[in-house]
Amino acid sequence: MIYTITLNPAIDRLLFIGEELVKRKTNRISKVTYDLGGKGLHGSYVMSKLKIDNLAMGLCGTNNKAALYDILTEKNIRHEFTEVADESTRECYIVLEEGVSGSTMFTEKGLVVSEFEKRNLLEKVRQKVTSQDMVLIAGSLPQNYLISDLEELLYVLKDSGCFIACDLSGEALLKAVEVGVHFIKPNEFELQEIVSKNQSLTENLEALSERVDCVIASQGEKGSFCQYQGEQFQVIAPKVEEVNDTGAGDCFVGAFLSMFYLKKPIEECLRFASGCAASKVKNNDSTSFDIEDALDLQREVTINRL
Ligand code: ATP
Ligand code: MG
Ligand code: MG
């Protein structure tokens, strides 16, 4: 089983504007849709779409839990969240302008979690996860969820003997590396925060791989570099017309871990994940991708063993 843990999920409210956004003008919204926010949930979305057994866990507020659960049900995502009393799962507002690529995001800070709820989550994780499982922890941390809380969660997972994947940034990513998780996928900015500026990418990946089994440094439209079992791969992404690259990394991680969980060879995992992520960037929201399109696009992925 794959478990995803989203500590700070979100309800994304997509606001479509029929023209370019203009200050001091009434910008009329032509359509509003809702989507999943939170990187762990994005991972679960990909896994569920690929029919890989998974359960979405994490923390969510009781005030608007029905809205979050409705979106999860609609997307066929099995979930078992630890509920935080009298709090609201954050909402994110994403403005999409007609004819303009990319989006503008406004995000709330998110939950305030009590010690009791932190314990509840740890207990649930301890009860469920076994050495056969894979766990993805992804996304930002709630306001008062400390790095020491993350560390405790990581050690509970380590004790279970499961495969631990982390899509985190900053201090949280540093902690994951220090604890020695099994997979990380920093993007260019996230990588800069955890490596030496005086070393080359190759050297930095080698250094990280002393602690983390599989390290993937993603570089947006250029593709990615992967260090795994003493080998390094350059992955060149297929050329596509980019509509919105938000969530490309999340889609990549979900697809990669799905294939890795099925014990597919590393190059196959990288190729398929790159195909799925390339399909994602052709869509204007942060989750949609098409499996058939991904299967076509993966043929255009070039992988060089360095
Ligand atoms: P996220 O918004 O999900 O956090 P990220 O910044 O972590 O994304 P990126 O490095 O932007 O991740 O992208 C991840 C992968 O998605 C890339 O390695 C590449 O394979 C694919 N990708 C991203 N942008 C493009 C693009 N314009 N064309 C083709 N593939 C892309
Ligand atoms: Mg990016
Ligand atoms: Mg990312």
From TrEMBL:
Domain Carbohydrate kinase PfkB as annotated: residue spans: 21-287
Gene Ontology terms for molecular function: ATP binding; phosphofructokinase activity; tagatose-6-phosphate kinase activity
Record's keyword annotation contains Transferase: yes
Enzyme class: transferase
InterPro entries assigned to the protein according to its UniProt record, in alphabetical order: PfkB_dom, Ribokinase-like, Tagatose/fructose_Pkinase
Keywords annotated in UniProt: ATP-binding, Kinase, Lactose metabolism, Nucleotide-binding, Transferase
One GO-annotated biological process of the protein: lactose metabolic process
EC number(s) recorded for this UniProt protein: 2.7.1.144
This protein's pathway: Carbohydrate metabolism; D-tagatose 6-phosphate degradation; D-glyceraldehyde 3-phosphate and glycerone phosphate from D-tagatose 6-phosphate: step 1/2
One annotated Gene Ontology cellular component of this protein: cytosol
Annotated SUPFAM superfamilies: Ribokinase-like (SSF53613)
Stored Pfam families: PfkB
Catalysis performed (reactions): D-tagatofuranose 6-phosphate + ATP = D-tagatofuranose 1,6-bisphosphate + ADP + H(+)
Family named by the database record: Belongs to the carbohydrate kinase pfkB family.
Matching PANTHER family: 1-PHOSPHOFRUCTOKINASE, 1-PHOSPHOFRUCTOKINASE-RELATED
Protein name: Tagatose-6-phosphate kinase
Source organism: Trichococcus palustris
